[in-house]
Write a structure and sequence with these properties.
By secondary structure, the protein is mainly α. Helices cover about 70% and strands about 10% of the residues. The chain has a three-stranded antiparallel beta sheet with strand order 1-3-2. Helix 2 (about 40-45) crosses helix 5 and helix 3 packs across helix 4. The chain starts with a helix and ends with a helix.
């Protein structure tokens, strides 16, 4: 690979990384959801809509401590996005569920990601998709090496 190709890839990746969070925040944190942060939206996403989720599972999924998650959950609960309750079978376990307001935020965030994926793959054929997925897996593996340090 030539120097100009490397330079182009580097510039593109730097620009993408700088733009992703800013763009997501502008798109997702609308007037309706101005009382929460982009980080809160990712917590809502980690909770999901399927069934009540254990606090410990959410913390693990987000790779945060229970203390950090508890602080964020307090805020989301105060704002009406989640409800926490003790498990009926094991009182030590705290379960979290999204309220209707939380589910609305979840779907709003999910739709942004769906639209982003559509924009990324709109002109790709199946072989190009496989190459893109391979590149993203390689990039994720690269970042994973730094996570462990």
């Amino acid at each position: 690979m030539g120097k100009s190709t490397n330079r182009t890839l580097n510039e593109l990746l730097v620009k993408l990384f700088n733009n992703v969070m800013d763009t997501e925040e502008r798109a997702v944190i609308t007037k309706e959801f101005e009382d929460i942060t982009n980080n809160d939206m990712h917590i809502i996403e980690a909770i999901g809509i399927e069934e009540p989720r254990r606090m410990s599972d959410i913390a693990k999924r987000l790779d945060v401590t229970m203390g950090t998650l508890t602080t964020n959950m307090n805020s989301l609960e105060d704002k009406g996005y989640i409800v926490r309750e003790r498990s009926k079978t094991d009182k030590r376990v705290v379960l979290v569920v999204l309220t209707p307001k939380g589910k609305k935020a979840f779907y709003h965030h999910r739709d942004f990601h769906k639209n982003m994926i559509k924009a990324i793959v709109k002109d790709l054929d199946e072989d190009e998709m496989k190459v893109m997925i391979k590149c993203l897996l390689n990039l994720n593996e690269f970042f994973g090496k730094y996570e462990k340090e």
